[in-house]
Amino acid sequence: MKIGAYQIYLLTIFCLLAACSVEENEKESTIYKLRTEVWPSDDNGKIIPSQGNYAPFTIKTIYARPEPGWMFDRWEGAINSIDNPTAISFYDNLAIRAVFKRDTFKVRTIAGGNGRGTELDQLYYPTGIALDPSGDLYVSDMYNHRIQRWRPGATAGITAAGGNGFGDSQTQLEEPGKIDIDSQGNLYIADTGNNRVQKWEYGGLTGKTVAGGNGMGKELNQLHNPFGIAVDESGAIYISELSNHRVTKWNPGASEGEIVAGGNGEGAGANQLAIPMGVAVNKKGDLYIADTYNHRVQLWEKGSTEGKTLISGKDFKSGFETSYFSCISLVNESHLYITDYHSKRIIRYDIDSENIEVISTNESIKDDVDKLSQPYQTAVDIMGDLIIADAKNNRIQKRKINNE
Known about the structure:
The protein is mainly beta. The chain contains one helix and 31 strands. The strands form eight sheets. Strands 3-1-7-5 form a four-stranded mixed β-sheet, with no helix packed on it. The protein has a four-stranded antiparallel β-sheet with strand order 8-31-30-29, with no helix packed on it. A hairpin with a 3-residue loop joins strand 25 and strand 26. The longest helix is centred in the first third of the chain and has 25 residues, at 5-29. It is globular, with a radius of gyration of 27 Å.
């Protein structure tokens, strides 16, 4: 039987398709292997992901996470970089090493510090910080209208909330103040410019209004410049309002708050506050308030109609009497860490002994480049080191305090 030209054409097409199919199958069957190593020891940190097999041309982001007391130094092997995290492309088998070194420091920048800006390695007037249960650092990047998450050892942040320009949609923030994180990793944001508090679940793409959001005002369903925030174990939110000179408590699911401190107009009376910038709550429901423009720290016991002064500018030596306490953090139910942004210092207050100690000042820092300018919220990490939102320097600083 003779084969015509048309049949020869079809046979040629079939052979070409079959060849392409074989070539494609061979390509798909090719797998490249990622091998990783931690130096000097596996006890110093880890690589995420640590090992794996990947198809050709896969692009993978890898991250080196140091253990407490260590810090990331550099990548070696298939990549040579100080960027962390970084991206690798699989065009062959790859071997990489993460090099860690001991975190011996007195002062160090752990987020930002690359000038004011909108890039992921920059911040613009950070006012709030919080550590989540895994040790990740969250930063309220006020004038970038976003919250950034910085993993330990990272050289750039990841936007965890906002970052879509300023506005009042559920994907936006406007000049966020301070933040807090609950035991499940949910993020609570004092969305100052929008007069509301937003809750962003871990990994969520949008927020949910859980307090305020009914316009600027002094009604119980409203907030006016919320700035300080604290969340207790039951999920109740305590909010210090700059322009209402009060602290309100919002129970989970509530459409209104209740006044639990201040709310009697701006003033220096025992039942008044003046532009309170910070609040912390203990397990009993007692409040510690940075009563900023009264230059004092107030204790409002649960159910009380008046506050008790724990610290004032008068407690300090000449030249430091005027203290603008911008933040208050409760650590282990035993100590208050208080930021004085005017005098650029951090104060530690022992709740049991009532001892007042200045634990960090600019005078204790040798290099001018490391000195604070308008510090706000503080936190204490697992090593007992002090983390400070150094707002005007557009960075987050870490300080050793044991030997100061």
